[in-house]
Write a structure and sequence with these properties.
single chain; alpha/beta; TIM Barrel; Cyclin A, domain 1; 21 helices; binds cobalt (II) ion
């Protein structure tokens, strides 16, 4: 029996524990070891890595990717992509999505995990098609959530859709760590029966369920699980690579991992973890288990946002009321999964409904956009009275939001002129205009300084 492992220390582990603040220089010299460990793939790009490189680390994210590829020629590199939103929360035009995917693969990515926050697969279609066209592995992801309409039959239906769309594999993405072992077992079994293709489970240790959930998922036939090397595992990160390897091997599964190499990798990352603990970037509490998400059925990040919103308004005593309002708002909105940006939209609205006392008398622009259909289809039925109250005579958009968008790439390229030295620069700019521009200017200045220095020395 075989089960494969994807290592997340360079992306999700890094993102979940230290807000993606690990610079390339921290891990450059261990990459050849990681390449030797026997992983199925290394998740190293996408998500917040791109933003963090440009904003905080003064690194070109594309260059980081190329350097990782150079040092890890054997192992597949993997990234996370928010479908039509790429790495952010707004929609991009199709030409930009295609170019972004094409260049991700050109620069070294092998596997692209593509998801949409509402599981509206119209929003991942273009990215998926382009991934295959560019010779990459297109992994379709389904966001896991708990609601009256999200049952096994519903997940099977979503998996069938992904298969029809041409996905090479399917990932169940449990960003809040709320998938229990029994649910995981039933889900993987049902998906394996329905679609005969590789199934990946992605979860977090947040609630403490992670390791047992993975174990049961593997028993049900899960092909690949996502783990993080132990010094960057646990808490809001993934369960530990070495522990899962140990337990699964004991049960007769072959992971393909080399224990001695894993030990070397972990020994390497231990002092780096210590450094982030010392500097306060790594807060010890994110390393523990927090079971509140299981009690309230809202993700940990959303719960802490609700608490801080209420504190700001001096209304922490209304927390229970807000937590009871959350499922009602969610029902009105057709049960969106509680991931960004929906977790914020639902949380802000539930808080407003409780504090103002009259439901929906104040509504955010984001909620309006959602009801207009700008984010995609709601998984369930929208409350039509609410739609009428908020939109009035305005018609919700028909079709896919990006269908009405003008191409953006060439325009941005023209706008940037010589400031962009590659198509990759243009894509960085389109994804994060202000910070990319700042990055380009600093890059130009530092090259100028180097040139001056060289001239002086001569
Ligand atoms: Co994750």
């Amino acid at each position: 029996m075989k089960v494969s492992i994807t290592e997340t220390v360079l992306r999700d582990g890094n993102q979940s524990l230290i807000a993606t603040r690990m610079p390339f220089s921290d891990f450059a010299t261990i990459l050849d070891k990681i390449d030797d460990a026997g992983y199925h793939s290394i998740e190293c790009w996408g998500g917040a890595t791109f933003d963090s490189c440009l904003r905080y680390l003064n690194e070109d994210p594309w260059e980081r990717l190329r350097k990782i590829k150079e040092r890890m020629p054997k192992t597949k590199l993997q990234m996370l992509l928010r479908g039509q939103n790429l790495l952010g929360y707004k929609h991009y035009s199709d030409d930009v999505v295609k170019k972004f995917v094409e260049h991700s693969i050109l620069n070294g990515i092998d596997i692209i995990r593509i998801f949409d926050a509402l599981n509206d697969f119209r929003n991942i279609e273009v990215a998926m098609e382009q991934t295959k066209k560019s010779g990459g592995h297109a992994q379709g992801a389904i966001c896991y959530t708990i609601s009256p309409i999200h049952n096994l039959a519903n997940y099977v239906k979503l998996a069938r859709e992904l298969k029809t769309m041409g996905a090479d594999s399917i990932c169940i993405k449990d960003m809040s760590g709320i998938l229990g072992p029994r649910e995981a077992y039933d889900m993987i079994q049902a998906l394996k029966d329905a679609v005969d293709m590789p199934i990946i489970l992605h979860t977090h240790s947040t609630t403490g369920l992670g390791p047992i959930t993975y174990y049961k998922a593997v028993e049900a036939g899960c092909d690949i699980i996502d783990t993080a090397i132990s010094s960057f595992a646990g808490g809001t990160s993934q369960p530990a690579t070495e522990s899962l390897h140990y337990a699964l091997q004991q049960a007769g599964y072959e992971t393909g991992l080399n224990e001695a190499v894993l030990k070397e990798i972990n020994d390497y990352f231990k002092p780096i973890k210590e450094k982030f603990l010392q500097s306060g970037v790594l807060e010890p509490y994110v390393l523990g288990s927090d079971t509140d998400a299981l009690v309230y059925q809202v993700p940990g990040g959303m719960l802490s946002n609700l608490i801080s919103q209420l504190k700001q308004q001096n209304a922490l005593d209304r927390l229970q009321d807000v937590l009871q309002e959350v499922p009602r708002v969610r029902k009105d909105l057709g049960y969106p999964p509680l991931v960004t940006p929906m977790s914020q939209i639902v949380g802000v609205q539930a808080t407003a409904n409780v504090l103002i006392g009259e439901r929906y008398s104040s509504v955010s622009n984001e909620l309006k956009s959602y009801l207009r259909g700008e984010y995609g289809h709601a998984p369930g039925e929208l409350n039509q009275d609410l739609v009428k109250q908020v939109l009035g005579d305005e018609k919700p958009i028909a079709g896919r939001y990006a269908d009405n968008m003008e191409p953006q790439f060439e325009k941005a390229k023209e706008l940037l002129g010589p400031m962009a030295v590659s198509d990759e620069d243009v894509l960085s700019y389109i994804a994060f205009p202000q910070i990319a521009e700042k990055f380009f200017k600093e890059r130009e200045d530092s090259t100028a300084v180097k040139v001056n220095y060289a001239i002086k020395r001569v």
